[in-house]
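W.,

You were right to be curious about this one. When I first looked at the sequence I had no strong expectations either way, so I just let the prediction run and decided to look at it fresh. Below is the sequence, 521 residues in total, followed by the output.
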Amino acid sequence: MLIAAPKETVCSFDGAFLLAFYNERIRTLILASDRFGNFALHYRLCKGGIAFATHVSSLAHLSDRATLDQVGLAQHLALGYVIGGKTLVSQVSRLAAASTLIANTSGITSEPYYRPKYVAKTRASKTEMSRVADQFADSFRTSVAARVAHSDDADLPVCAALSGGFDTRIIWSALHSLGKSDTVKAFTLGLPDSTDIEIARSITDKLGIRHLPIYFDDDFLSKTANYWVETVERTEGGYGITSATTIQAFYQQQKDYRFLLDGHGGGLYRRFFMRSKKQTFAKGASVSQEMLRILGRPLISSPILSEDIKIAAGVEAELAMRNFLSDFSDIGEVGDVLDHYYITQVSANKTALSGNGQLAFLELRHPLLNLASYELVQTIPEELRKSNWIYKQVVQRLCPELAQFPLDDQGYKVPYAGFLFFRYPIRGLDKARELTSVLLKHRFLNNSRSHHPLIKPTDILMRHLPVLLTTLEDKKHAVQDFVDEAALQQAITSLRSGNTTDLNAIVQLVDLAILLSYFKL
């Protein structure tokens, strides 16, 4: 059946998956990725056939010497990832999300097997929305149930993250309704006094969930630099050195768990990209130009890069975005296309590569990436797609007790640049909000809280500044062809004096230097 109708067969598959099938009799290879590109699959032509692997590094040196793909490099410099099926290594390609590849004696063909189609609906009746909410609750519950079928087995311990956000809460709502909240362990990553830790502790105490927090305390953060190079290499650039805390956490989780219920995929149901990015677009500007302006990295605007490289990077990244947005312009509103870009390009290039690395520690299961829920979200009005309506309805139906706990839908990672103000406003905001809540008797205000920081983002990096600069010096040969050496030395001197203006750009340059050195490019 797979050989006779590969697209139709793969389209019936559910969840997060990669597929490789070979029929020796007719010498035909079929590769396929799931609808979300949740795991990375790469391929390249070689003598006598085709080679494929989850990691680019496994394919880079099948020829005598790997060479740098200039278009891939330009995109990576601008965005921090490569889109449109390219990679940093020439001749190594990435299989697109929701696509099949067929290789046989006639050649190689690759084509999509699935495209979302969002209904242009502006409103719906309360009765219809109530019915849809019931369907969402059923689909999430069924998806979680399938992924914890063996959670009672002591030899197969399962864990799931629990933070202050919606993504983890919807999973625990389903677990609670299934009677599994006492067999699956919860973990929370965060600063010891962070809101996520406090919220998770309150929830686990109330519902009797076994809770094993991983604290980002001084001892933990003092060792973070030891994991910088491993983080970039294991995830092949999906995570940069500022995400090394995640690799540290993987090592700890590996001791206690075998399976992880991963909350990845929440963006399908709360549409953060649609809400925030569309609102910041400059009037009259093209969508692709505005996307590049918003998503462009500090490195691309830094004098550290030579001017011609910066121009090329901007041109290639904007062209790739424009082509993608054009190819998917028919799936729904502009916001739907933007979120599809996020899901199948940003997430599928960064999170998927990181997921490949994470599989070395734990088996991943993704209950939010299920076909029934994904197709259901395409049927509801746009205003509900870009709100938290789905989460609120599902939690209320599956575990209403969880609706009473404070919410903080920013996640649980250590605060790094870009999140400091919005995630960690001053503690006084909490007090002001509490007072306003009392005066207005407004449950929503009382049911949400602000983070308060215990450490500044730059402090974590500056604590390890000698290691940062030593790593750059060791790996600089990999990036010297497109760096303005005088500007780089000036930035380093400024950094040593305590000026952190160029810190993020230098960090991103170190990420790239580690990655290119790893690929031996």
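Here's what jumped out at me. The chain has 24 helices and 13 strands. And, maybe more interesting for your project: The two ends are 42 Å apart (CA to CA).

Coffee later to discuss?

I.
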